Each structure stands twice: as C-alpha cells, then as structure tokens.
Amino acid sequence: MQNSTLNKYGESLHTPQKDGGSLNLLKKIEEFIKSFFIISMSDSEKHEFEISINKINIARAKVTSLTFAILEALMLTIHVIANKARLFTIPYVYYGFMYILMLLVMLVFLIIFSILGADLSNNLIKLRTIGIFFIGFILSWCAAISLLDQLSSGQVIVYIEAVLSIAITPFYKPLRLFLVYITIHTIFLIALPYFQEYPQLILGNSINTSTFVIMSWAISYMRYKKQAEDFINKKIILKKNEELQLINMQLQKVNQNLEKLSMTDSLTGAFNRYSFERLIIDEWNRCQQQSIPLSLMMVDIDFFKQFNDTYGHQEGDRCIKLVADILAAYTNGSSYMVARYGGDEFFVLLPDTNKENALNLAEQMRKTVEEKYVPHLNSNISDYVTISVGINTIIPSAESSIDELISNTDKALYLAKKRRNCSVAV
C-alpha cells in the first residue's frame, strides 16, 4: 500500500513506502559483508584447501615455535645476567616469568604440531583449533610484554610486531582471525590504562595499535583471499588439463581408428592394397638386411563369379569375409599379414618363412576353407567353396625386387587355378 496525503488543491499525493528499498539495501550490505569474510568454495574444495593451507601453517608454526623457544632461552639468559641484583623485583620478576612461560609453551606447541602434523587429514579439526590457540597465545604474550613495557619505556613495539607477524606468516580464515584480533586487542585496550598513567601515551598507543590491528587484518585477508584464488585457479587449470587430456586421448583414439580404417579393408578387416604395398617394402628391407627368406601367398576363391551370379552379391561378400577370417586365423599372433588385394583375391605376406613352411601353411588354409562346406553348386570342381593358392619364396637381395616376387607369386597362382583347389609353389 502507499501513504496518501492531500496538497493545498485537494489533490492526492502518494508517498511510496521505503520498506522494499531498505530491505534490498540491507540484503546487499549483508552480501557484501559475507563476501568480505567468506570465500566461496564447494565443500570438497574447502576441505582440500584447508588441508593445503594447514600444511603450510604447520610447517611455519614449527619453525616459529622453535625460533621463539631459542630466542626466549637467550632472552632469559640475558635477563638473568643483566638483572641479577634486581631479579625478584617488579617488573623484572614478571619479565622473567614471561620468558619462561613462552619458552615452555612454545616447546609444547612444537611437540603437538610435530605429532598431529604427521597425520594431517585425520587431525585437521584439532590442528585448526590448536592453531588458533597458538596465534592467540603469541598475541596475548606480546600484548602482555607491551603492557609491562608501559611501566618503563611506554613502548608497544612487541605487540605491534606480533600483530603484523601473525598477518604475514600463517593463513587463517578472515573471520576467525578477525575474532582473535578483536578479542585480544579489546583486552589490551582495557588493560592499557592500568599500566600506563599518562593519558597522552594511552591515547597514542591505543590509536597506533588499533591502526596496526586493522591494517594487519586487511593484509591477512588479502593473503588468504589470494591463496584461495590461486587454489581455485589451480583446480580450474587442473580440471581443464584433465579435460584436454581426455579430449586428446579421444582424438588419438579417433586418429588411430581413422588410420586403421585407411589401412584396412572395410568388408574383411584385412589390410587393404595400399597398406600391403607399404608393408611389403618394410618387410622386404628387413629380410634383405638379415638375409632371411620372405614368402608371399596369393589366394583366389575358385569360380567366384559363378558364386556371385548364383547366390547374389550379399552372399558373395559373406564368402569373401569367411575366407579372410580363415586366413587371418592362421596369421594371428605372428608377423604374418593378410591383405585383400582386390575382389576375391588376397595376399598373405610371410616374413622369415621358407618355401616348405609356406606351402604347408597354404595347404592348411585351403583345407579349412573346403571343410567349411559353404555350398557352391555352380563350381566345376566341388559342391562347396574352395580356394587356390600360389606361393613364391625369395631371400631379398640387391639383384631381386618386390615386383619380381609378386610376379612369380601371380604365376604360381595361375598354375594353381589351372587345376583349381590346390596350392602351388614356384
């Protein structure tokens, strides 16, 4: 609803309510404060990030506690020597007590961090809590030393150094560190008038220390946020790298498949003529270097045209596929290679195979095809599908050639096809 009033002319004036605008403003302020104290992350990322910063914090806490222990042992020694006559008078007795306290507490913290840090993931909550007590103790101790200094010099340098050191050494969530800072600093400001009698020094020290607390917290906030942003960016980069690796693997697989398709015959899965012409050169060169025999078979399905005319091209394709599978079955797991040279003709390349072994293998292949009993009623030699095989063997040399090997294999096949369903080696 709107509030309405009348002007001097009796006209109604409407004043819009400001409740909605005020709520939006408060919501924006709330979101700003949350964004200032809380860095947005998923639960899994928060856990992983806490582990990473706690690793850093533990390493630095152990160095800090050891350094403090050494320094306090040194300070205690100097204190005892320099103030031997007045060791048990105020404020020297307090200084001595503070040095001993810091020395002992730092040794305890060093032991705790060393034990719990060995199993960080299972002790994360404990280490987080102990870390708060650790920085809280250091700030409290340094604040107490600065309060004692008010009785003599009026300096607050020890407290200021501690406030700044906490800001630049560990990484703590902004809200947690803010609460630690504000709690200890409030106690410090309340206690300050009890140790310092001059109002001007109280005011100056209050302003200076408060300024340093605010600046130090801001530094800590920026460091923590930068660390969190670096962590998130690193996760994004790792994820992108994983995605790129996956894409590269998929592309590699596609390329391999494409390469395989470019090298193989689509019907039979055997190598195609192009691949055969490349591979025979490689095997020829290898056999020539090692002076070992290279055999070549040329396989032809007997009366295949009549088979196609009788049973149709689909059955013809099935017949070619069957023969290719039989030839491949005898070459799997070896350096032998089966290639479809064209139509119903195949080449079988047999590196390091002499004529006798090649002839025996050809006979096994021929018999296996015949024993499949694929009907072929228009064959002039059998009621079933048969093959003829021509074989040639050579030890490659500079005086011989691949063309010669293929030509002689073709001649052997011609002789085999004269008789049909047989194997001939020349």
Backbone shape: rod-shaped
Question: Mean pLDDT, nearest integer?
Answer: 89
Q: Taking strands numbered 1, 2, ... along the chain, how are they ordered across the largest sheet?
A: 4-5-3-6-7
Structural class, by secondary structure, is: alpha+beta
Query: What does the main sheet amount to?
Result: 5 strands, mixed
Segments where pLDDT lies below 50 for 5+ residues?
1-11
The secondary-structure element order is EEHHHHHHHHEHHEEHEHE
Strand content: 5-15%
Terminal Cα span: 108 Å
Total beta strand runs: 7
User: How many domain regions?
Assistant: 2
How helical, in percent, are the residues? 55-70%
The total of helices stands at 12
Report Rg. 46 Å
